[in-house]
């Protein structure tokens, strides 16, 4: 590789030296706090920075590759040398799509980008539109959820590094699958975070996962640029079709132009440059429509938002669970109101929060496809005490009803890996911190957290135990057996029907009518010429709706009304 200019923003230290393969080189500082040096390097050279008189070589905050882990020297990686084959890829928006969230490390036995490629044809057959990868940026250790990343620009080596991610995205596009990448910009992990040594990346505010990111205090301009450049890199250099932005409510931005609005503006600009749509999905618990309101109307311009209210309304109505933040949900009235209005808490009192929460969504202006509906996700499974899935607690019929309510709704749909075949594997919280003290603190903290809620501490899996990670891997040998195969076929049929019928693709919530009977436990979604009839109770019920059955999870009897067995659904077309 010829002469390369190394640059690092480091306003804190008085001296910065560049270390390339053990050789030290002086760097020159400019008034804006950036240090630069031009050095001749090899493609496989390792480099880092030495700050002031501390001789420790630190990784590059914008490191493109960390082949030896987050505590080691960085390595260059040139995206311009990649031989992509997706020049004909026109892109794919998330609105109205079916998204499949997966964790690379547990999706397959090998837990790599390349082994994920081997399952892409399965996802195509299922009817998936986009794959959403849980965080793939570099984190400490060999396995983890990825939300404790510390080097945001580099790709986790145990998954296959940047070249492996390129192969996966390229393979997805070759099969017509879009790719979303989960990006965490609200906090940094506890192991390998050297950013505070360089500059004011953090604030004193606590997010619950650590110190907050400085997006509006002194020195914030370069920190914001760090976030924006990282986000755009995933879409430009790795051809991702968009990002899922983790817990954006933890970004404490007090500036006039919120960081999300700025990111939305620059993402739209990049989309025009690339000639394909790019999507931004926000995770937020604020129930704030401004996230998905267009910028021209005073919003932030996000493409879509995760909607936990929909998850809670469906899960509690079907399962009967009421603990914690589920307390306000569970009735069919709550389910109907949430499905009809997008949010359940919309300026209403939340007993879990002990205050009013949320703001009403203008359903005449914002389509339902800007909200994501799902029956489970990594949070709603993995943050349970033992990481148990709905499939480990519910019947086939209950799982089928949940699927019908999500895939039959006007919302953008998301599945969590393995839910479509009722995977028997849990998805537990796992880490692999190499520092003994941090490993012990993580395990003890997890046990103490759930013990405080009445769990036996001995029942809580140790996040650091390799078995916790191993048991969370999907068991692909069960896909084609018994009720697993039966449920998967039902998911496939629901997705195909959703894609084929314009009435089921109608994004406007105002066009949907919902009837329900609280006592008899049935609910019906009327969508154009279709009626999605669900019986959540254990006993058969007769529902005052008729039509031709186009899909059912059990034997439905239709005459002048429809009789459904317990815990089943039927989709009828008016005749």
From TrEMBL:
* Protein name, UniProt field: Malto-oligosyltrehalose trehalohydrolase
Task: Write down the EC number.
Answer: 3.2.1.141
Q: Which residues form the Glycosyl hydrolase family 13 catalytic domain?
A: 101-446
Keywords of this protein's UniProt record, alphabetized? Carbohydrate metabolism, Cytoplasm, Glycosidase, Hydrolase
The answer, when asked if Ubl conjugation is one of the entry's keywords, is: no
Query: What range does the record give for the signal peptide?
Result: none
Assigned GO CC terms:
cytoplasm
Protein species of origin: Mycolicibacterium hodleri
């Amino acid at each position: 590789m010829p002469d390369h200019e190394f640059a690092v923003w480091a306003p804190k230290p008085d001296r910065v030296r560049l270390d390339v393969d053990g050789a030290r080189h002086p760097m020159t500082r400019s008034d804006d706090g950036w240090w630069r040096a031009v050095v001749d390097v090899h493609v496989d050279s390792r480099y880092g920075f030495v700050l002031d008189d501390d001789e420790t070589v630190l990784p590059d905050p914008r490191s493109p590759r960390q082949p030896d882990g987050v505590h080691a020297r960085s390595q260059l990686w040139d995206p311009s040398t990649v031989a992509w084959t997706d020049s004909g890829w026109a892109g794919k928006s998330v609105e109205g799509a079916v998204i499949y969230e997966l964790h690379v490390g547990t999706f397959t036995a090998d837990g790599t980008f390349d082994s994920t490629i081997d399952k892409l044809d399965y996802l195509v057959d299922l009817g998936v539109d986009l794959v959403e990868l849980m965080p793939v940026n570099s984190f400490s250790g060999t396995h983890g959820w990825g939300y404790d990343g510390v080097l945001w620009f580099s790709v986790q080596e145990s998954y296959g590094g940047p070249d492996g991610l390129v192969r996966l995205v390229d393979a997805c596009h070759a099969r017509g699958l879009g790719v979303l990448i989960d990006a965490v910009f609200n906090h940094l992990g506890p192991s390998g975070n050297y950013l505070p040594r360089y500059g004011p990346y953090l604030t004193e505010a606590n997010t619950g996962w650590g110190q907050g990111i400085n997006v509006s205090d002194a020195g914030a301009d370069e920190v914001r640029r760090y976030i924006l450049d990282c986000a755009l890199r995933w879409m430009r250099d790795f051809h991702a079709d968009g990002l899922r932005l983790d817990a954006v409510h933890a970004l404490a931005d007090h500036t006039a132009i919120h960081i999300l609005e700025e990111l939305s503006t620059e993402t739209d600009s990049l989309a025009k440059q690339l000639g394909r749509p790019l999507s931004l999905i926000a995770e937020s618990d604020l129930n704030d429509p401004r996230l998905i309101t267009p910028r021209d109307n005073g919003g932030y311009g996000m493409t879509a938002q995760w909607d936990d209210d929909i998850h809670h309304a469906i899960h509690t109505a079907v399962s009967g669970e009421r603990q914690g933040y589920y307390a306000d949900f569970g009735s069919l009235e709550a389910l109907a109101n949430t499905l009809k209005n997008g949010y359940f808490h919309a300026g209403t009192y939340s007993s879990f929060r002990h205050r009013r929460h949320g703001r009403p969504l203008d359903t005449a202006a914002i389509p339902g496809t800007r909200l994501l509906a799902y029956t489970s996700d990594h949070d709603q499974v993995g943050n349970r005490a033992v990481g148990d899935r709905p499939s480990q607690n519910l019947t086939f019929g209950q799982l089928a009803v949940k699927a019908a309510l999500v895939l039959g709704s006007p919302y953008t749909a998301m599945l969590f890996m393995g839910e479509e075949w009722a995977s028997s594997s849990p998805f537990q919280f796992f880490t692999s911190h190499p520092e003994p003290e941090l490993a012990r603190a993580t395990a003890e903290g997890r046990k103490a957290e759930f013990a405080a809620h009445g769990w036996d501490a001995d029942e809580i899996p140790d996040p650091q135990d390799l078995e916790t990670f191993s048991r969370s891997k999907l068991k692909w040998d069960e896909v084609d057996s018994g009720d697993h195969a039966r449920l998967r076929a039902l998911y496939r049929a629901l997705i195909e029907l959703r894609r084929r019928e314009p009435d089921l693709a109608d994004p406007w919530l105002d066009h949907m009518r919902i009837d329900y009977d609280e006592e008899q436990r049935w609910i019906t979604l009327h969508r154009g010429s279709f009626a999605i009839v669900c019986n959540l109770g254990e006993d058969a019920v007769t529902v005052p709706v008729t039509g031709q059955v186009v899909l059912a999870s059990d034997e439905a009897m239709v005459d002048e009304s429809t009789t459904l067995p317990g815990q089943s659904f039927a989709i009828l077309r008016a005749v």
